Inverse folding.
């Protein structure tokens, strides 16, 4: 089975993969060279998760409300809004 590219992973996939990497590193039974590669992959997965969380946060921040506080939809996120 081929690995999914990190850039194509959903948040859940990246988080699951990151948990596996952390587990392997915590066990301490991985050779040094493999540990370095795992650490690098973990750093990439962490970045992916942070990007996905930021996207979700921006969407939530852009939900529009009526005067009585009921959601009416969303507006596109624009930097600085």
């Amino acid at each position: 089975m081929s690995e999914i590219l990190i850039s194509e992973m959903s948040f859940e996939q990246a988080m699951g993969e990151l948990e596996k990497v952390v587990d392997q590193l915590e066990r301490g039974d991985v050779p040094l060279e493999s540990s370095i590669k795992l650490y690098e992959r973990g750093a990439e997965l962490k970045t992916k998760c942070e990007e996905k969380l930021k996207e979700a946060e921006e969407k939530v921040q852009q939900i529009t409300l009526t005067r009585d506080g009921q959601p009416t939809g969303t507006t596109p996120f624009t930097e600085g809004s």
